[in-house]
């Protein structure tokens, strides 16, 4: 019995020691978990570490074969985004990943390595980059060429810049309205990648024609109408009728593209129609309001006097031959 009691006491002491050891293990486990949580929140959690022994172990070789070439010089890493791969958000993430990889490789032993990112999101980002580059180049070429032509027609730098500014504001306004209508009528929250490109070409070309016709008429009436306000009003009345008719015809032409079920054609048609409506209303108003700033000399009294005398000179010249003829007949 004494031997049994002794063994029971030893067992109880052992269990007490084991309980104390388990408590220490639990405390250590909690400490490790807290450390891992903190490391996960820090920048250290972005790295992945494996001991050299594990990398060279035979059990890890199948993993290397799945993602690397036989010579171990080419590797492929697959990552999945938690957003729609065809959206702008995913394309922006691809650009961010590209910048991060470039920055990491420069400060590592793989600074001479080359990498590329594929997939649908990468294709969307590349397409946006190409489209934006072509669009920007086209915008610069068109605006510079149109600006030079308008300076020769209007004979005023400010007037040319005013017309170009009006066209740009009209373009962005029409594009924004088209995007809003597209989300409600076509159930498309975004414009197609080539809609801004074609819409810009159409609207700017049509708007510049309207501006040139209006300013040419304004210049032709310079000798007949000296008052600037009356002249620009008369020009807008005459040219406006023609332009409104042309806008209605063009609007009907582009409206014929809407039943095509091609999203790009539908959005371009809506943008051009809305832009034409805005141009017909805003361009005469803005150009009429800006005349006294673009042509400041028109309010000068000396200029008005010179224009009046220039208008009267043909009448005086035509009256002299008439007088001579009358005198000759009297004689």
TrEMBL record:
Cellular component terms (Gene Ontology): plasma membrane
Domain Membrane transport protein MMPL: 7-293
UniProt family annotation: Belongs to the resistance-nodulation-cell division (RND) (TC 2.A.6) family. MmpL subfamily.
Residues spanning the membrane: 135-153, 160-177, 197-216, 236-258, 264-286
Protein name as catalogued: MMPL family protein
Subcellular location(s) of the protein: Cell membrane
Main localization of the protein described in the UniProt heading: membrane
Keywords recorded for this protein, A-Z: Cell membrane, Membrane, Transmembrane, Transmembrane helix
Membrane topology annotation: Multi-pass membrane protein
Annotated segments matching region Disordered: 307-331
One family name in Pfam for this protein: MMPL
Alphabetical list of Gene3D superfamilies matching this protein: Multidrug efflux transporter AcrB transmembrane domain
């Amino acid at each position: 019995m004494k031997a049994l009691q002794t063994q029971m006491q030893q067992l109880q002491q052992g269990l007490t020691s084991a309980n104390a050891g388990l408590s220490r293990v639990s405390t250590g486990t909690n400490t490790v978990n807290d450390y891992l949580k903190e490391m996960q929140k820090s920048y250290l959690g972005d790295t992945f570490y494996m001991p050299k022994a594990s990398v060279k172990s035979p059990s890890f070789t199948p993993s290397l074969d799945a993602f690397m070439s036989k010579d171990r010089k080419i590797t492929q890493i697959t990552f999945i985004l938690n957003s729609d791969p065809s959206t702008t958000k995913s394309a922006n993430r691809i650009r961010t990943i590209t910048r991060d990889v470039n920055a990491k490789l420069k400060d590592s032993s793989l600074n001479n390595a080359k990498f590329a990112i594929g997939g649908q999101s990468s294709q969307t980002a590349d397409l946006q980059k190409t489209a934006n580059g072509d669009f920007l180049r086209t915008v610069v070429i068109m605006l510079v060429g149109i600006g030079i032509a308008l300076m020769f027609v209007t004979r005023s730098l400010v007037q040319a810049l005013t017309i170009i500014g009006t066209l740009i504001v009209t373009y962005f306004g029409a594009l924004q309205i088209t995007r809003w209508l597209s989300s409600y009528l076509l159930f498309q929250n975004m414009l197609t990648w080539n809609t801004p490109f074609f819409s810009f070409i159409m609207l700017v070309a049509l708007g510049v024609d309207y501006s040139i016709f209006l300013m040419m008429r304004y210049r032709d009436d310079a000798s007949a109408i000296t008052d600037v306000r009356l002249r620009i009003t008369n020009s807008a009345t005459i040219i406006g009728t023609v332009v409104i008719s042309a806008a209605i015809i063009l609007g009907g032409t582009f409206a014929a593209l809407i039943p095509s079920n091609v999203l790009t054609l539908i959005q371009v048609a809506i943008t051009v129609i809305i832009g034409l409506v805005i141009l017909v209303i805003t361009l005469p108003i803005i150009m009429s309001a800006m005349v006294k700033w673009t042509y400041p000399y028109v309010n000068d009294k000396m200029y008005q006097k010179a224009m009046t005398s220039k208008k009267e000179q043909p009448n005086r010249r035509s009256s002299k031959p008439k007088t001579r003829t009358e005198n000759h007949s009297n004689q």
